[in-house]
Input
Amino acid sequence: MALQDLLDLSQQRKKVGLSEERVTAIIPAARQYISFWREYPDMFVDFLVRGNRTEPKDGEFKFYFYQRVFLRAAMRHQYLYAVFPRAYSKSFLSVMVLMCKCILYPRCKLFVTSGGKEQAAGIVKEKVQEICTLIPAFKNEIDWGRGVTLEGKDYCKYVFKNGSYFDNIAARESSRGKRRHGGLIEECVGVDGTILSEVIIPTMNVSRMCMDGSTHPEEQLNKSQIYVTTAGWKNTFPYDKLIQLLVWQIVKPEKAMILGGTYRIPVLVKLLDKNFIRDLKMDGTFNESSFDREYESKWSGTVEDAFFNSEVFDRNRILKQPEYEASGRSSKASYYVLSADVGRKGCDTVVCVFKCTPQPQGSSLKTLVNIFTLSDEHFEDQAIKLKRLFYKFNARRLVIDANGMGIGLLDYLIKPQIDPETGDTYPDFGVFNDEEGYYKKYRTQNCEQDAVYQIKANAPINTEAHANARSQLSSGKVKMLIDERVAKVKLMGTKIGQNMKPEERAEYLKPFTLTSILKEEMMNLREENEGVNIILKQANRGVRKDKFSAFEYGLYYIKQEEDSKKKKKKFNAKDWVFYS
Output
């Protein structure tokens, strides 16, 4: 039976009885069909949409050219790595590939994993529902029987009528021992490299058993891995995996392929509004490197002598909610510290809010619960906002760099002000480490004693602050907010998030975004030495370091306070008693 005969048969409206003879007779043609569709999955989808019609009807689903390229590359290669920007339909296409594999490879077992199990489940459910709505034939291939196909908050499993299925598995130790034939690693920049290497990839150590009971290890499906993501950071596991597959594409072109694209393609096919891109470039929370990663698919990073490690930073991003005022959710001994890097005339003043929780042994646990930017140019306006934040968090200390412009801001902090928004009167702030006594003469009866800690940075202080920041991160003593992409997925999984206006959603995600910009600034710093001193210089001068400065000032002050307390505890009055 020719290929066209089978197409014609599919269009017949007359019911024909099913018999073993008829099934046996059609097997050779069906085998040709399946082989053809495994190589051309886009044409398989075309067949599901419109049968043997060559042109789609108005409103019917149809592919863009680049989407056909993606589908064919994903089905023909055992390893595919795709780096695409937002609105590229990469998740939509990746889930469609899994559904095609499940139909065309009976009894296959596939998985989806991401940075969080709930995140993976949310992506899969949304895309499967979208695909089944656009192409109802896919829906007919899934067994929707009760207790078979499952859709939950953090887990989903889609079982096909031929025995295939795919589900989401957690990128955690709990997934150890599971068995799958292939899978999709969604937003792989957010997946822990060690877990992926030691737990997820080993789940694919078995080959698919065909319907006749045989196995074929050389089959493209076996151990197939699709990595899709937006660009991340160099010197990380996802980047190293990309380089590995790039080499394999050269030496094993039949097994591996990498793909990439920029925002220009989705803009060209009108999947992305060019006005959105224009507004994005004007947004104050995005800078050049951030835009390059998210929309140009350019990986960020510095030379090999980068001072901070990207994976160490990501490992400490565990906070799910920012704080906007003092919270009693932790230990009673906890306290807040505000640290500010001062800017004026086009440069923001950045304020990092740390919550410090003393530990029985060792240094305290520091959590960066929020980052604020003050755009007012006048120092008096900045002083009022800093005092407002100080009292909101009931902070122990406000740390500022008293060199350069910081002196101008300090001159206003030591004076009383009236908040024009609330009408509250804020007292003058006393300086804790005023060794020269310069600011004592400005104190009033209502002075907020010892509110400000001034840092007069020089080479030795900077060296100590740099080393302390890296040490605190490496030891896991500093925790920060999760990636804004993960936060957005969690937010959109709630009714509150779904009902938010775009500007409200952007405001909610701002602390998470600013934490990512802090990371970008830190990854842009490389080490140079002048004698025993550490000098951190920007590899890309277009990337600022104001958020990093505020970050390390806060950590430096906390270390000074803790060291001072340790010295006091070591003092024993008996050691100073002399007997004759």
Remarks:
- The chain has a mean pLDDT of 87.
